[in-house]
Amino acid sequence: MSAMIQSLQDNFSRQPVAPGGDYVHQVREKAMKEFLNTGLPGPRDEYWKYTRLRIFAKRTFGLPQENAITGSDFGIKNLDAIRIVFVDGLYSPALSDESAFAENGIRLLADALRDDSGLAGGLLPQPDPAIHQFAALNRAFQDQGVVLELAAERELPRPLYLLFHSQKTGQDTASHPRILIRSGAGSKASVIEHYNGEEKTAGFCNALTEIDLASGAQLTHYRIQTESDTAFHVGSLFARQAEDSRLVSHNLSLGGRLARTNMQFELMGRGAELVLNGLYLVSGKQHIDNHTLVNHRKPGASSFQDYRGILNDKARAVFCGKAVVHPDAQQTVATQSNRNLLLSHGAEIDTQPVLEIYADDVQCSHGATVGQLDTNALFYLKTRGVPEDEARSLLTFAFAEDVVLRLENQTLRNAITEHLIGRLPEMKNTDELVTT
Amino acid sequence: MSKQNQELEKFVGGQYKHGFVTDIQSDTIPPGLDESVVRLVSKKKKEPEFMLDWRLQAFAHWQTMETPVWAHVHYPPIDFQEISYFSAPKTPDDAPRSLDEVDPKLLETYDKLGIPLHERARLAGVAVDAVFDSVSVATTFKAKLAESGVIFCPFSEAVREHPALLEQYLGSVVPYADNFYACLNSTVFTDGSFVFIPKGVRCPMELSTYFRINEAKTGQFERTLIIAEEGSHVSYLEGCTAPMRDENQLHAAVVELIALDDARIKYATVQNWYPGDAEGRGGIYNFVTKRGDCRGDNSHISWTQVETGSAITWKYPSCILRGDHSVGEFYSVAVTNNLQQADTGTKMIHIGKNTKSTIISKGISAGRASTAYRGLVKVLTGATGARNFTQCDSLLMGDRCAAHTFPYIEVKEPDAQIEHEATTSKIGEDELFYCRQRGIEEEDAVNMIVNGFCKEVFKELPMEFAVEAQNLLAVSLEGAVG
Hints:
heterodimer, A: 2 domains, ten-stranded mixed beta sheet, 8 helices, 20 strands, 20% helix, globular, B: alpha/beta, 13 helices
């Protein structure tokens, strides 16, 4: 047994009593068994073909502990939102807008489990633990997290901003935040999940999000991951959409030593629409892996996917996007695009855009590219007196900007732009060329 | 098939004139595979020592391997001990005596394909003594080839006549341990083709198994090895458009291509084995390993395939682009109807500098069939200037069929340019309507559209084959629309 599993098992036996009583306790026990049955993915595991967990399997992680909070302005500044902040894996009432919870259908997971222990099983049918062992692990440790339940026709007045912040503290901990979103018919909301870590934090964050959209519901979901480049992050997201619902998912994977997201979407009704907008930026020795799966189960739904990646240094990125059109899901529209910019020797990209189609009246396409900066564009900028390094950064930024411009929230867009500028070499001199 | 080949060779090669004297019974090995079978196969083929050793090594390794299950195809498990690995051919009494005894449906198909009369009998499996016309043709070709130094002969002959070449090249592209079916093939392969094009020679004609078939019938575990020395050119054609009578259900062939500096190999396949009936009963399992090694600089290997037959097609003709400036190409049309399944595609491994690869794959599914494209484009560190373009399109006809795309792209070289695009859609209503409006029958309209869809691949086929391939598509898709 690996050191990591040993430490997780240890944590499991020592973790606080389950909120919500016996039922939740049973769900946790069962989920832990499922996780241990599957164990960590191995080298023969097709679903983890390009991502090895060797370095993390050797590490140990403790339980989250209450630490002194060293700051008050974590996360994205000036964001007009309902804030809920978790520091080092634990809820921080001081930094959260508790007063806005009740009127907007927001509860902390622990409170929600006390009201209704049935939530312990999640909102959606449970994913196969043989593939989604990390989702099972999350279920086994459920305690910290948020439940958002929007009544029919309600509109969340401000975005819900969920910040999971890691401070530079002593021990490396494993946290398992759990976010459940249930949107009533015709409701409208915007939720921002932000996973952030200070430099040199080396914890393990195993987040899970479940989204259930009733007919006509609209949700804009942001997943922003800016952990430190020594952290280990696994994020799972499962969503189900009824007819005429619309889900926009922005997934920005920017941090972590090793980060993996598994996203799975079930389109269950006519007129359901799904937009997936993703960006990954890796440098140093980072390894980022994004897996998406879109299941078109009923006729007349559409999905549009665009993921882009920028790879630098010795970093590695993996993209696997799969669209499945099930039998009878006629009139499906599914598009998928994955474009990658490889900037240096030693970087590696592995991409797999997969289509599985069992119906005939469909329009499906996918495309994937791997390439470099356009030499003509580079030349043009140089003739205009822009030094080569700056020109490269500028063009790289432009490549990413298409994704950033799709973020509806202005404050967020600016914050991400700033982050990108900070990550690209020589970009600081040209930032006046970048309009935000 | 092995036994069959040998026997056929004997019939055709001369014994026929004196009547059927071979003791068929004594040459049949009961089903099952163990070391003695491997030794016997080798002995029957009068193979040199190194060949037997190789087979035994392969057999030892095969026993440690597990049947692969990852492909997107479904079939009942194969019992490898149920197969006879060296079976005598059906006695001539079993085969139809003349064309009058052949299934009229088969004859109808030949008619549609425009197969010459004298070919029909042979293809339908009419007892060999009735079919002799093309032997003389083949002999003429052989003389011409020998003149330019080209070796083109059955594999078993090459093992005996050219052991040095075999020892040097056999298994150098597809090692016996490569995969389960390649390993099985290495253990028990019985015949196939061997081609050697010496330095600087441009092969004076298209080589084709079509002409070789009377000497050694293609069989269950076929092995093909093509070596093109520096600066040589060869175009090789495998299979034929006509459906062939065949008794074997599992076909596990191995094809190895080797192109040295400036050499060029063009390999075209038309596969139309028995696909099973409309309910999916019977039909051939076609599990093939095909790989080309662009070993020399500026070498060029091109695969073209038209796959319309077999109940299950599972193969990935690949190119290893080892030499600098080498080029790999893959053009494929895979058509499935009724309950056929195809999981096919290619691998392009870029190792040398400035290597280029092109993949054009067209999949057509009709009825309840499924077609999958599975491909790997891999660019290793140091393969600067690597370039790949991939396009895989699927056309769906009928609401119960399926089309899948599983591309794998792995790039470790920042100087590489990789493009992949794929589309899936059903046959265009507008296009159909337009044709119908112009007075074209629906079936003809579908054929026109499908042929247009596949044009990019057909233009890579040798001319006479391209015409036949078009007809073949029409026959395969018969009844798919309407």
